[in-house]
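re: that chain from earlier
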Amino acid sequence: MSKFNSFLQDLTTYLKLPTLPVGVKMLRRTEDPPVSAKFPLSNYKKKMVLCQAWTIAKRHEEHICLKYEDMRCGPSVLAMGFQPPIPYFTEGHLCLNRYNKTLEAGARTEALMPRFPYNVYEAVLFSPLNLCTYDPDAVFLSGNPAQIMRLVHAALYRDGGRLSYSTDGRLACADLIVTPILNPGFYVVLPGHGSRRLAQTKDDEMAFTFTYSAERIEQLREGLAKTHEAGLRYPVRIHLDYEVVFPAQYDQLFTLWEEKR
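^ sequence. v structure.
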């Protein structure tokens, strides 16, 4: 039984999410996965991209772990810190004529990409939260904008304020994993082009990620329940207390009926 059952039940009650949340844990060298996990190269006989792997976790309910040799996406390798950044990357060549007009613009984009320091971690583990028996480093969820809006309400219920939001429209792995681990908090994430093209992310899909702690789980649970009680609901309860306006020829019916009374 998952330690997150109560949280998952609340998510079902208040949000009706289309897929399971995912717990992610970064593993240091010589550290084994705390659960029995599949590795893409040995178990699937192919390399994978991170967004593909966590989609397997949330849709197929499998634990999946990736090391450098399992990974197909170079920028994700850099984000996880599995290889050191080299000039070809830092100078902006990956962005040139694709995401940015010039090398200088690409270099600025790459300089702001969230990355773990090189050689701190050896692997990244994804688990569907209903099967997660360990303490993850971060938890992320997918949903439509209205569902993510409700998670923002829940996150801010206790302390107020606003959530920070930063994106370059790519590399959701960096925003979902690196950002909450290096800078604890709650974050809204815009899935990137790779997630949408390579991992079946839908056009109307967004994401929400947070640094794991039991306190943050309870903060979200309380926030969801209390804001729901206050009338903030999903699906959003559309306001219908109004009188509609019809074309004049439709209203003429009422005029004619009144004349015959």
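The chain has a mean pLDDT of 96.
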